[in-house]
Amino acid sequence: NDQDYIYRAINFNYYTTSMALQTFLEAAIEMKSGKLYAPQGTKKCVYFIDDMNMPKIDTYGTQQPMTLIRQHLDYGHWYDRAQMTLKDVRMINYIACMNPTAGSFTISPRLQRHFSTIAMGIPSNNSVKLILSSMLDGHLQFHNFQRSVQEISAKLLDSVIAIHQEIAKNFVPTAVRFHYNFNMRDLTQILQGLLRAMPGVVKKPATIARLAATECIRVYSDRMIDLNDYHKAKDICITGATKGLDTLIDPQELRDEMMFTAFPPDGDESAFDEGGYAPMISQEMTEKVIKEKLQDYNENHPVMNLVLFKDAIEHVVRISRGITSPNGHMLLVGLGGSGKQSLTRLAADLVGYQVFQITLTNNYGVAEFNADLVKVFTQAGAKKIPTVFLLTDTQVIDERFLIPISDFLSTGTLPDIFAPEDKEVVFSAIKGAMKAASVQFTPDEAMNFFTQRVKQYLRIVFCQSPSGDTFRVRARRFPALVTGTIIDWFHAWPEDALYSVAKSFLADVELDGNDLESVVQYISMVHSSVIKISDEYLESERRYNYATPKSYLELISLFKSMLEQQRNTTFHNAEHFEKGLQMLKD
Predict the structure, then answer these.
(1) Positive or negative, the Cα torsion across 224, 229, 233, 238?
(2) Listing from the earlier edge strand, what are the strands of the sheet with 36-39?
(3) What are phi and psi of 573, to 5 degrees?
(4) Helix or strand or coil: residue 30?
(5) CB count, 10 Å around CB of 208?
(6) Which residue among 115, 330, 512, 553 has its CA within the 20 to 30 Å range from the CA of 412?
């Protein structure tokens, strides 16, 4: 925060070459005289390097970005291969961090010798509880919660910490479950959910106890990759909450997904606090509210032919909770056709967010993607429009698309993609707001003010399929996609969902009642059978075969088209023979 310093955050895992890193470093310096370069004015610059050990090791056992930093620390300069000159770079300092359990595990001793090394251990339970209780107790006291609610805060945190330890003990990371890393980030997410409680909604100890259990289930269970892990994690959360909070928790309510919603549980927005969080009244009421919102959405937008079965409604509740949370960026993981995009659009509309999505063209590239990013950042930060930037894995035609996204998720700073004319548009849009907030206008202060507005009003939702190695490789190259987001894993559709979807899509087909029921049951049975056989195939042959929701919808569409084709053929044949018979009679 010292005004004499410029702060720049670097994510090393983005930079595979020294030239790419050099371009980023030089954005914060200017030529003073001759070959002398330094930060603008009389300021000094601090580069904070995140994940220092992450760059890929090349053929010769070196890591080019680290070598560039080492050259600068050794000799005070680096070589500009474009201009064929040396640049003496002064008034710069480096602070670096790394996770010793990931990446290349070691860094070059020739580079490390320039740094004072400090080991950061995991805080003890007492330290964690002190951190969490300081914020939770302050929130409860500041908003004048009931005395009985304030008195159980210590029990709440004891239960949350116990659940966290049990989850970390039972779910360890593997090659497939690489994102099963549970740390302070997860406890912080639970605390953020508790801090959303308001005294108008949380009037009894039982309500805030239910909120704590809800947040634990949302943070831990929703990221599990299959239903077995999901139910096991959910049972741990419910059991831990019930044990720590005595009779305040009704386990059956939590098992029935009677949790909290980020939208009015009865649909009455006038009685719902902005950014609020309220317990469900009933599953039926929540389903009614969401279905009514879907009808309103279809009247004002392109129609989404959604079947809101139980799992779909639960995902809408999860996504709406995620995008209304502070820094509530989300990672939705599910096979094609799971409904990730459609449910995100519905959830965003439910909580008052607009959805922005890129449109791919033949010549769409990094420059066009950055231009779209500038557009969505300006929409959120300059115009104060709550916006969800929805990006899917199929739209990432160049892995460089994820560099600015991951940069924003991990550091909270805007990527360096704004041209001078873009900055002028931003500055003119926020000058009035800065004056109202008593912030003196300077280019640096204006960008800081704009960045805070973007963080407040923009949410990034990235949809990724778990099939193949793409997800694992991206999570390795861009860790912020996992660590900086709220994960919601879309599991295979259950039997009731398959039945509901088939019945809805076949409702317009002219079939006898018994025939329609038989066809619906048969189609859902076929899909379930293929999933079962695919699991056996994986176990015996160690090869994957995916029966996705998209293929299920294609099966229904194929049946409808073939039925219509056969009926047309039969009709034309009957008409043809009828004419022939008439000719014979004549």
Answers:
(1) positive
(2) 29-33, 36-39, 85-89, 77-80
(3) -65, -45
(4) strand
(5) 26
(6) 115
The phi, psi pair for 463, rounded to 5°, reads -100, 125
* Residue range 11-29, pLDDT digits in tens: 665 565 677 788 878 888 8
Give the chain's largest Cα–Cα span: 107
- Cβ atoms of residues 289 and 266 within 8 Å: yes
Tokens standing for residue 358: 């890129």
* pLDDT confidence band for 303 (50 / 70 / 90): confident
Q: Which two tokens stand for residue 93?
A: 């300092």
> Could you read off the pLDDT of 86-127 as tens digits, one per residue?
999 999 999 998 877 766 667 888 889 999 999 888 888 889
Residue 160 identity: V
The owner of tokens 């909450």 is 241
Does an H or E element contain 553, and which? helix 549-585
* Torsion sign (Cα): 395, 399, 405, 406: positive
d(CA 555, CA 274): 43
**In which residue are the tokens 């599991």 written?**
491
- CA 236 to chain CA centroid, Å, is 24
Residue 464's DSSP bridge partners are 333
Task: Say if residues 414 and 14 touch (Cβ distance below 8 Å).
Answer: no
Q: Calculate the alpha carbon distances from 326 to 128, 329, 436 in Å.
A: 20, 9, 23
Give the span between the Cα atoms of 280 and 253, in whole angstroms: 10
- Residue among 170, 264, 262, 162 nearest 213 (CA): 162
**Residue spans of alpha helices (H) in 399-483:** 402-411, 420-436, 443-457, 470-477, 480-483
Give the Å distances, CA to CA, from 391 to 397, 541, 550.
11, 34, 18
Evaluate whether 235 touches 217 at the Cβ level (below 8 Å): no
Residue count (the chain):
586
Residues in CB range of 320: below 8 A, 6 or more apart = 261, 262, 263, 347, 348, 350, 351
Q: Give the pLDDT of residue 107.
A: 80
* Alpha-carbon Rg for the chain in angstroms: 28
Q: Tokens 């406890």 map to which residue?
A: 187
- The tokens for 520 are 């619906």
Q: How far apart are CA 67 and CA 60, in angstroms?
A: 12
